[in-house]
Amino acid sequence: MSNELILREDNIRLVMQQAPQAWRDNQQSHDRCLASCQTLLDTIEAEGMNDELDQKAETYIRKSRNTVKKMNEQRSAVTKLFDEIRAVFTTLENDVDPAKKGSIPFRLQEQRNAYAARKQREAEERRRAEQERQRLQLMRDTYRADVEADYRQTFNSHLNQKYNQLAGLMQSITLDNFDQQAGKIQAFPTGLPDDYASLLPSGTRIPAGLDSNEAKAIRQEVLDQLIPQFREQYSFEMSENKAAILAMLPGKRQELEAISKASAEEAAKRAEEMKRREAEEAAKREQERQRREQEEAAKAQAQKQQAEMAGLFDQAKAAAPAYQPKTQVRKRIVVTDPRGFLDILNLWWTTEGVTLTVDELAKKFKTQLTLCERLANDKQDPRFIQSAYITYEDEVKAK
After folding, report:
1. What are phi and psi of 145, to 5 degrees?
2. Model confidence over 34-61: pLDDT tens digits?
3. Quick check: 57 and 40 in contact, CB under 8 A?
């Protein structure tokens, strides 16, 4: 029947006219049936069941079933139309409900879901690609920083060695070799050898995944950048140190001459004082050198951390699309093997099942209980569960 016919006013009016009479008839059948059954029930409860009363009860139950059937026929004309009217309205609602499968809004939502999932996959792919790029770049940057630190350490060791050599010349001066040692100090080179770059190896371990040729190119690039700095620093520091020592030579000659003319006790005292002053000067120069070395190391570490933070920012920026629909991401279980339901049941049991009562569990497992009861009542091959927590009892029904 079409919706127009169902909702015709004369149809609705006719049913509404029939409804009061149908209700009165059913009310009368209801009252009579209950009154008759109640009288018989009172007798049975007072006197106890016997064969005669059991037969009467069977008759009354049969009549009750017939009464139910008759009442259903009486009201069906009314309730059927109501059900049809409700179906007409719910059909209209379902057609525009995004939650109802098959509706156009539902299909639109499916399109949005698929698009949002694709956008999320694309964003995740970009994030992973950027993460891999950043990993490789971080590996290169870390290797570059480690190579540079290694070169600087080797250079600083070389510079310190030359410091010590120059200081050794100064400390070994006596009146007898003064001119000779002074000449050596004066001629002490203040520049790095021309072939110093070839004498500067790197023992930094090449990380796994970095091509050896690329590692070699990185080392050469770092070396090309550092050598001019090393030459300038070496020349400056050695010239300063050399100039400071040369400036001390006249005073040292005078001191040595004074020591040579002094008594043994006074000579020893003055020699000790001279050594102390020279040691203090050397210590000051060494402290200054270490300070500069620590500043360089701290600067290199800061640059390394800054590069790492920039990489994380770039990774997040690359993963973010220009437009991303609002989404709600929830995990959905996909069972790939029937045995997976055992794992689901186990998780449910340990988190919720153990907290429920027997009656609550019986409602949830009604299908399984019905199956097990059917197996127990199988006439050909009855099957029972052997458990300390399960018993079987007979349920007797009169036919």
Report:
1. -65, -40
2. 898 899 899 999 999 898 989 988 998 8
3. yes
Q: What does the alpha-carbon distance between residue 166 and residue 184 come to, in Å, rounded to a whole number?
A: 9
3-state class (DSSP) for residue 36? helix
Structure tokens at 322: 């220009």
Helix (H, G, I), strand (E, B) or coil at 393: coil
Q: How many CA atoms lie within 13 A of 399 on its CB side?
A: 0
C-alpha to C-alpha distances, 50 to 55, 64, 102, 331, 399, nearest whole angstrom? 9, 21, 60, 63, 16
Residue type at position 389: Y
pLDDT for 254: 83
Tokens of 279: 């040691």
In angstroms, what CA-CA distances link 387 with 22, 371, 384, 390, 391?
Answer: 54, 17, 9, 5, 8
- The answer to whether 172 touches 181, Cβ cutoff 8 Å, is yes
Contact (CB, 8 A) for 218 and 143 = yes
Q: Each residue of 340-358: pLDDT tens digit?
A: 999 999 999 999 999 999 9
In angstroms, the CA 151 to CA 148 distance is 5
Q: Which residues lie below 8 Å from residue 115, measured CB to CB, with a gap of 6+?
A: 325
Evaluate whether 193 touches 181 at the Cβ level (below 8 Å): no
Among residues 220, 221, 94, 232, the alpha carbon closest in space to that of 155 is found at 232
Q: For Cα atoms 319, 320, 322, give the angle at the middle one, nearest 5 degrees.
A: 135
Shortest CA distance to 29 belongs to which of 73, 76, 68, 78?
68
Alpha carbon separation from 364 to 346, 356, 373, 387 (Å, rounded): 15, 10, 16, 20
Say if CB 152 and CB 222 are below 8 A apart: no
Least Cα distance to 173 among 162, 161, 182 occurs for 182
Stretch (H or E) spanning 326: none
